[in-house]
């Protein structure tokens, strides 16, 4: 327990310090479509602004601030005075008074305040040059306003400076037009190439930010390396999705080789070496929560192990929401519950499935006290009897975090395999499941990452929770039609039907 807590703390530490450039690049590669969408949207927005925005033209005029002097001794002081004075003229050029004079001169049909908002002035540092710019949606109007400004501004400055010195004095400062008025023939906005480029860049930055943020906030497991780091457990197999699993959910020896079938066979092989110091006869397949694919994984493991020549019994230990009977297409009315309550004999409840002759013990009727029934002496005695008769006992357990049934089964088994669904199971759910198993001293053999998308072309779209449709493929590669009870209010069945892209077909004839 202490080791698990220490491992969890180390994992959190690594998560806090492990964000680097490789993390960003991995997020961009994985969520490239998000980046692409934002880039397209940003470029489209920039293009829309560039080609539909109102054009704005600009005219400019440059003034020289002259300070007349009578002798050379005052030249420096006059220059310094002019430099200081020009800063005041920057504000004066955008004043309402000057704008009012221009409106009166040109007879414009707008307020002085509106005109002043389109006038800007600037003065380079340590110079006596003053540049005034006028913006307008019309080029000729912008030039006309700049021309009027060049005259009215000179007049305004002369009036203000003369008033300051008195009627008899001479104005200490004079404005001279040294450049312009001139109109820039190209509109200053919108700048089409620049706007499109900025839209592209903004979309790229936002897309990368969203992709990285989404990846960092994703607490689910998306690789075997992550699963090994979080759990500290050996990874027994990585089972990919398979679009054909909707029609052929059970993988059997002799059938067409597929990545999913190879993964199940890898799980069977790794199970033999999971604990070489102890015999592993009873194996529980557990998961943190529902809809992670443990039931179908348990069924496939049992079938593949039986195909390798081992005598196998498959037990549906989920006495709350059993699913094995649906996947295997067999009758589930009589099973584990009836055996434990001595209503039927074990041999009468066991059903032989497929040419590999897997013995299946379904859940039977659903009892009101599943945990007590699974923890009873009757169940322990049943396991002892099965151990004496079979090489391998595979038990499908309920989710660990939902009920205590899974932990009860794990405590009685020789080992437990934790099934984790790719992109769905959160890290804290996995750690809590491991805590619950170690709290009862259950032996955890390893973990299985289920429904991984990284597959060669042609084997994408595997969905665990889907009913058999046209039949089940047997060892000889043929098809046996088995009656399959309908899934009642099972959302995963609908999801499987959509992903498998195949209409369900009712099966009629039965077989064992």
Would you write up a description of this structure?
There is one protein chain. This protein is of the alpha/beta class and about 500 residues long. It folds into three domains: about 20-55 and about 190-215, no CATH class; about 55-185, Alpha-Beta Plaits, CATH 3.30.70; about 225-500, Rossmann fold. It is about 45% helix and about 15% strand. The chain contains 19 helices and 14 strands. The chain has helices at about 1-15, 20-30, 30-50, 75-95, 95-105, 110-115, 140-165, 190-215, 225-230, 260-270, 295-305, 325-330, 335-340, 345-350, 370-375, 375-390, 405-410, 425-440, 490-500, and strands at about 55-65, 120, 130-135, 175-185, 235-240, 280-285, 310-315, 350-355, 360, 390-395, 415-420, 445-450, 470-475, 480. An eight-stranded mixed β-sheet has the order 5-12-11-6-10-7-9-8, sandwiched between helices. Strands 2-3-1-4 form a four-stranded antiparallel β-sheet. Helix 2 (about 20-30) packs across helix 8 and helix 3 (about 30-50) packs antiparallel against helix 8 (about 190-215). The two termini are about 45 Å apart.
Which secondary structure elements does this structure contain, and how are they paired or packed?
Elements (H helix, E strand, L loop, with lengths): L1 H16 L3 H10 L1 H21 L4 E10 L8 H19 L2 H11 L5 H5 L2 E4 L6 E8 L2 H27 L8 E10 L8 H26 L6 H8 L3 E6 L18 H14 L9 E6 L6 H14 L4 E5 L7 H5 L7 H5 L5 H4 L1 E3 L4 E4 L8 H5 L2 H13 L2 E5 L8 H8 L2 E7 L5 H13 L4 E9 L19 E2 L5 E2 L10 H10 L12
Parallel strand pairs: 5-12, 6-10, 6-11, 7-9, 7-10, 11-12
Antiparallel strand pairs: 1-3, 1-4, 2-3, 8-9, 13-14
Helix pairs in contact: 2-3, 2-8, 3-8, 5-7, 10-11
């Amino acid at each position: 327990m202490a080791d698990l807590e220490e491992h969890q703390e180390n994992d959190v530490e690594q998560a806090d310090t492990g964000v680097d450039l490789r993390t960003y690049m991995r997020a961009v590669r994985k969520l490239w479509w998000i980046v692409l969408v934002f880039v397209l949207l940003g470029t489209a927005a920039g293009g829309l602004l560039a080609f539909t925005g109102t054009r704005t033209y600009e005219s400019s005029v440059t003034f020289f601030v002259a300070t007349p002097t009578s002798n050379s001794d005052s030249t420096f002081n006059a220059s310094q005075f002019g430099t200081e004075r020009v800063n005041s003229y920057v504000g004066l050029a955008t004043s309402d008074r000057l704008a009012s004079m221009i409106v009166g001169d040109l007879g414009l049909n707008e307020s002085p305040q509106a005109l002043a908002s389109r006038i800007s002035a600037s003065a380079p540092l340590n110079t006596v040059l003053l540049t005034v710019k006028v913006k307008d949606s019309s080029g000729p109007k912008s030039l006309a306003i700049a021309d009027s400004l060049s005259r009215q501004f000179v007049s305004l400055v002369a009036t203000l400076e003369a008033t300051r010195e008195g009627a008899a004095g001479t104005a200490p400062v004079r404005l001279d037009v040294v450049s312009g008025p001139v109109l820039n023939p190209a509109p200053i906005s919108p700048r089409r190439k620049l706007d499109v480029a900025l839209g592209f860049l903004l979309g790229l930055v936002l897309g990368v930010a969203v992709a990285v943020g989404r990846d960092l906030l994703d607490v689910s497991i998306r690789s075997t390396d992550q699963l090994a780091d979080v759990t500290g457990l050996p990874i027994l197999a990585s089972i990919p999705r398979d679009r054909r699993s909707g029609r052929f959910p059970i993988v059997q020896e002799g059938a067409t080789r597929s990545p999913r079938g190879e993964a199940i066979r890898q799980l069977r092989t790794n199970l033999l070496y999971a604990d070489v110091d102890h015999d592993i006869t009873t194996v529980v397949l557990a998961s943190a929560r529902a809809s992670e694919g443990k039931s179908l994984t348990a069924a496939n493991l049992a079938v593949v192990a039986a195909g390798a020549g081992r005598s196998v019994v498959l037990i549906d230990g989920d006495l709350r929401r059993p699913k094995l009977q649906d996947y295997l297409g067999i009758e589930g009315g009589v099973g584990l519950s009836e055996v434990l309550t001595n209503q039927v004999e074990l041999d009468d409840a066991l059903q032989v499935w497929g040419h590999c002759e897997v013995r299946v013990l379904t859940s039977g009727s659903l009892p009101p006290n599943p945990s007590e029934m699974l923890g009873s002496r009757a169940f322990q005695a049943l396991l002892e009897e099965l151990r004496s008769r079979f090489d391998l006992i595979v038990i499908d357990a309920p989710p660990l975090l939902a009920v205590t049934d899974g932990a009860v089964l794990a405590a009685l088994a020789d080992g437990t395999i934790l099934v984790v669904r790719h992109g769905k199971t959160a890290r804290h759910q996995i750690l809590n499941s491991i805590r619950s198993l170690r709290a009862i001293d259950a032996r955890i053999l390893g973990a299985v990452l289920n429904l991984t998308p990284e597959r060669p072309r042609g084997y994408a779209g595997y969905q665990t929770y889907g009913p058999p449709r046209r039949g089940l493929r047997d060892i000889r590669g043929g098809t046996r039609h088995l009656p399959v009870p309908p899934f009642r209010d099972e959302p995963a069945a609908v999801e499987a039907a959509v992903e498998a892209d195949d209409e369900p077909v009712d099966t009629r004839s039965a077989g064992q």
